[in-house]
């Protein structure tokens, strides 16, 4: 079995770090990095710190508008897929790299396997929602992390090739020990603190929302560690919001390594985030989680009382942190979603070979 896997953004390096090693026990894997993320702290740090194999192709597409970025990826992927002719193209999540990979493969009649299929925010203003819906409608195999994801696909008439495997991110998270050094470096040992991340386009690109979120973070009852995504850093400068982060309450740091991030998620009093991955991980740690959005694809976290949606308005965030009592329920280790996916790909290959 030959598989081409396509990655290119931070959460995809992290997912490939658990999937690629097992996949390589079953298949010849060719890894393509689109280069959507290229800053050391968004890409190289994961190649160095996690078991992500070096890419066979590095497309170096870089940043651009959605259309141009996706188009450049398609142009670069087309001849490579034509040459490699794999049995499967594996794509992860909901980024422009995901959609470009799925579209390039399906035009060449190469079956697509989508890891993290079926998630929906039902908000088509999000670029990620467009990417997910289209990728799921192109995929032959749809590996769902939750029951809700399976239901979402059924609502869209997709039932064939759908497999409920669980979230591959859990495997790495469960097997990553703390790095106590990061608490020492940030002078947070035995001190209450909150952790926050903000990078969604709908928040960062709206100056009023971004200002409200930064103000709310600065007014929390704990010091807040804020590893700043480059997109957010750029928007803070562009909208002249630097004064809102120049407060001793906010510890602005560069994006962190996966292990440092996991450590902070486990030790924080609260996590405030608009990230899909971070909300899942914080709940897994049993840390109260405030989602800085109006909807989430991970509805189970709200239903179980581990997380709350608190939007981007100052008062709503403040009130949620003051008044919402969230359930601390660390989740037990999952069964093995990675093995479920790899063995299913092998079965699919065997049945067509
Ligand atoms: C992308 C994904 C988002 C995912 C996130 C993970 C899409 C549409 N969005 O968002 O779903 O949650 O990655 O982190 O695919 N930039 C840098 N250095 C980099 C990369 C980006 O400075 O290495 C800056 C550029 O100014 C760029 C902006 O960040 O224009 C946005 O980058 P982009 O990859 O387009 O989207 P993200 O916001 O990172
Ligand atoms: N992450 C990290 N360092 C950071 C911020 C996030 O390693 O500074 C990890 C986080 O633990 C999670 C993943 O990146 O595993 C989530 O990626 P991101 O928030 O960029 O994207 P999303 O999940 O929202 O698509």
Radius of gyration: 20 Å
Please indicate the percent range of residues in DSSP E strands (runs of 2 or more): 5-15%
Number of helices: 17
Sheet with the most strands: spatial strand order: 3-2-1-4-5-6-7
Which CATH top level class of the largest domain fits?
Answer: Alpha Beta
Mean pLDDT: 96
Which blocks of ≥5 consecutive residues have pLDDT under 50?
Answer: none
The number of strands is 13
The CATH architecture classification of the largest domain is 3-Layer(aba) Sandwich
Morphology = globular
CATH superfamily of the largest domain: Glycogen Phosphorylase B
CATH topology of the largest domain: Rossmann fold
Q: Helicity level, as a percent range?
A: 40-55%
* Small molecules held by this entry: uridine-diphosphate-N-acetylglucosamine, uridine-5'-diphosphate
Number of domains: 2
Explain this structure:
InterPro entries: UDP_GlcNAc_Epimerase_2_dom, WecB-like. Belongs to the UDP-N-acetylglucosamine 2-epimerase family. It holds the Pfam family Epimerase_2. It is a single chain. With 353 residues, this protein is of the alpha/beta class. The chain has helices spanning 10-26, 44-49, 66-84, 96-107, 127-138, 147-155, 168-174, 180-185, 201-204, 207-218, 230-238, 242-245, 258-267, 276-285, 299-303, 314-323, 337-352, and strands spanning 2-7, 28-33, 57-58, 88-92, 112-115, 141-144, 162-164, 194-197, 224-227, 250-253, 270-273, 289-291, 307-309. The strands form 2 sheets. The protein has a 7-stranded parallel beta sheet, with helices on both faces. Strand 1 (2-7), helix 1 (10-26) and strand 2 form a beta-alpha-beta unit. Helix 1 (10-26) packs across helix 17 (337-352) and helix 4 packs parallel to helix 5 (127-138). The N and C termini lie close together (9 Å).
């Amino acid at each position: 079995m030959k598989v081409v896997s396509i990655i290119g953004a931070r959460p995809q390096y992290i997912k490939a770090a658990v999937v690629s090693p097992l996949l390589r026990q079953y298949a010849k894997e060719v890894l393509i990095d689109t280069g959507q993320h290229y800053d050391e702290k968004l890409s190289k740090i994961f190649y160095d710190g996690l078991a992500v194999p070096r890419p066979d192709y590095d497309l170096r597409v870089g940043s651009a508008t959605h259309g141009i970025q996706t188009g450049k990826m398609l142009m670069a992927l087309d001849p490579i897929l034509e040459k490699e002719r794999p049995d499967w193209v594996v794509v992860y999540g909901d980024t422009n790299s995901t959609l470009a990979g799925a579209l390039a493969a399906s035009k060449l009649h190469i079956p697509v396997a989508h890891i993290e299929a079926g998630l929906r925010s039902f908000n088509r203003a999000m670029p990620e929602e467009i990417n997910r819906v289209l990728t799921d409608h192109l995929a032959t195999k749809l590996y769902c992390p939750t029951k809700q994801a399976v239901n979402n696909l059924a609502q869209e008439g997709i039932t064939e090739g759908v497999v409920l495997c669980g979230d591959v991110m859990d495997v790495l998270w469960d097997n990553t020990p703390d790095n106590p050094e990061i608490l020492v470096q940030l002078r947070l040992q035995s001190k209450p603190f909150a952790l926050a991340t903000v990078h969604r386009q709908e928040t960062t690109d709206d100056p009023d929302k971004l200002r409200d979120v930064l103000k709310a973070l600065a007014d929390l009852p704990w010091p807040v560690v804020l590893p700043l995504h480059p997109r957010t850093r750029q928007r803070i400068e562009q909208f002249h919001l630097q004064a809102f982060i120049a407060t001793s309450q906010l510890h602005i740091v560069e994006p962190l390594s996966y292990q440092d991030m996991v450590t902070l998620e486990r030790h924080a009093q609260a996590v405030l985030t608009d990230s899909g991955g971070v909300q899942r991980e914080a709940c897994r740690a049993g840390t109260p989680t405030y989602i800085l959005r109006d909807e989430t694809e991970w509805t189970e976290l709200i239903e179980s009382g581990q997380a709350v949606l608190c939007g981007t308005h100052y008062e709503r965030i403040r009130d949620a942190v003051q008044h919402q009592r969230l359930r601390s329920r660390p989740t037990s280790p999952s069964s093995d979603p990675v093995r479920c996916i790899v063995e299913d790909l092998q079965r699919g290959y065997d049945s067509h070979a």
